[in-house]
Automatic annotation (TrEMBL):
Name recorded for this polypeptide: Succinylglutamate desuccinylase
Annotated organism of origin: Marinobacter nauticus
GO molecular function: hydrolase activity, acting on ester bonds; succinylglutamate desuccinylase activity; zinc ion binding
Any GO BP: L-arginine catabolic process to L-glutamate
Gene3D superfamilies: Zn peptidases (3.40.630.10)
Keyword match Nucleus: no
Cofactors that this protein relies on: Zn(2+)
AstE/AspA barrel-sandwich hybrid domain segment(s): 231-303
């Protein structure tokens, strides 16, 4: 049933088998201009509603920020993917439309999780990026203390042609962190390529996620992992760059691609008291943004930790 603009809660008939014993939350459009995942979900829903296949598992489909989607903007007032895990309750956000929407989406996810407590809960929050990336498709695994990534989730990412996974180092205010920490879901933020306007996406570049989601929706078994998508490079955060104040200098260009690598000894930032140099092994930068207030994150330095190969956990 349609719960609100951009929220669709689908429950299969009671007699329908759910072979994977799971319930799925799939979200897109938390940033309104990230259109390709929205088009992929629209296509899958059209197939379902036209009877091309049957849904096997409970499914909550979320289009995060419909007003921003209509406007073709990332957001209207404030970045909605900084408003979850209760951040929407801060006085500066609670009166804004995006703050109210984040609170509503949290409540919908809570209700969905409560309704399907016996099933494995999974959340995939789908995005595309403005910034270029040395690794086109990558996933972020929210930090939950004591938890490691299940092999089945690694295999799903490879099935979706996502070859890179970044392990987050602390809880955050993004949508997937809320579902992971509060609802105990296996959650991922998945970056699938480049931002384009509606109608301008080359959807052939998104066939991996389209096929993988369709297979999950239908309750089918996971396929054997095939080359070239047979290994997942897992990165971990080694340093969080923060704006330390007026003397802070960030030595990464504004237009640098995510996953750009820096050699040992390279100075990444400095101020009048301190600096940070790359350690004994190369490190890469992700999410660089010098235009943040004092105390906020300017970027993350990461390092490849391991390579997961399908079939060899």
């Amino acid at each position: 049933s349609r719960k609100a603009n951009g929220v669709l809660w689908l429950t299969p008939p009671a007699e329908q088998a759910n072979p994977n014993q799971e319930a799925l939350i799939i979200s897109a459009g938390v940033h309104g201009n990230e259109t390709a995942p929205i088009e992929v979900l629209n296509m899958l829903v059209s197939e379902l509603f036209s009877g091309e296949w049957s849904l096997a598992c409970p499914l909550l489909l979320v289009l995060g920020n419909p007003p921003a989607m209509v406007a073709g903007e990332r957001f209207l007032d404030v970045n909605m993917n900084r408003l979850f895990n209760g951040a929407h309750g801060k006085p500066e956000y609670s009166g804004l439309a995006e703050g109210r929407r984040a609170r509503f989406l949290e409540e919908m996810c809570r209700q969905f999780a409560m309704a399907h407590q016996g099933l494995a809960l999974n959340h995939y929050d789908l995005h595309t990026a403005i910034r270029p990336s040395k690794r086109e498709r990558f996933a972020l695994y929210p930090y939950v203390e004591g938890r490691s990534v299940p092999a089945g989730q690694c295999a799903f990412l490879l099935e979706a042609e996502v070859e890179t996974l970044l392990l987050q180092h602390k809880e955050s205010t993004v949508f997937s962190s809320f579902t992971a920490s509060t609802l105990k879901a296996e959650s991922f933020t998945i970056e699938l390529g480049k931002v384009e306007p509606f109608g301008r996406n080359d959807l052939r570049r998104f066939q991996g996620i389209e096929r993988a989601l369709r297979r999950r929706f239908r309750g089918e078994a996971a396929p054997a992992v095939q080359p070239p998508f047979d290994h997942l490079t897992v990165f971990e955060v080694v340093h969080e760059v923060l704006n330390t104040g007026p003397s802070f200098r960030f030595h990464v260009p504004d237009d640098v691609a995510n996953f750009t690598e820096y050699q040992p000894g390279t100075v990444i930032w400095e101020d009048d008291q301190d600096d940070y140099r790359v350690g004994t092994a190369p490190e890469a930068v992700v999410f660089p943004n010098r235009a943040v207030p004092v105390g906020q994150r300017v970027g993350l330095m990461i390092r490849a930790r391991e390579v997961y190969r399908a079939g060899s956990v």
